[in-house]
What does this fold into?
Amino acid sequence: MQNESRPALCCLVDGVSLHAGVAVPSGDRRRLERLCRYVARPPVASERLEASPDGRLVYRLRHRWRDGTTHLVLDPDELLQRLAVLIPPPRANLVRYHGVLAPRAALRAAITPHVAEPTPDEPRPGPRREPRAEPPAGIAPATAHDRRYSWPELMRRVFAIDVLECPDCGATLRILAAIHPPSATRAILECLELPTRPPPVAPARLAARDLDFDDDAC
It folds into this structure.
């Protein structure tokens, strides 16, 4: 329920605030860049973080709190604990809709736009839209109803390369077999004079430059 003391198009529901009074026009590149910078900002500003002589970390707040607090003094483990809670769980949907925009809402189909897929003989609308490239042989073209793309299709869409194209003759590669037993894999690699063991993994180390804090940052 909207609070009367809040501005128009602003509400606070179940602890989540929503401000729908600000919009970025499609041609305003400056405001769009500002929005992207705001979304991509890190959780901690490194220029306001410094190490104290006793080994703890002091974080200078950007704005003074109501109780007068200007700095936070945390142990390194405590800081990591606070940052760890910001990491979303694996395979969690980070975009959630409420009300009529919810996935199973009965009225969702009545308010969401529907873009009809053009026929093969019909040009795609929009002067800046380039025609879709034909998928390589052996890769099924994705349709509007596909929920998942195959690995070769994803590589083609993201990196614009065909991972199934032979670098020698240009023909389409196909998977003949998937070899899982380590003994068989080792024998094939030895026959091809290729290394049979992965390179050693170096232990995680923190560079000394990452521990240097500017004493004049505060």
Summary: The chain has five helices and five strands. The first helix runs from residue 29 to 39. The longest strand covers residues 10-13. Residues 125-133, 208-218 have pLDDT under 50 and may be disordered.
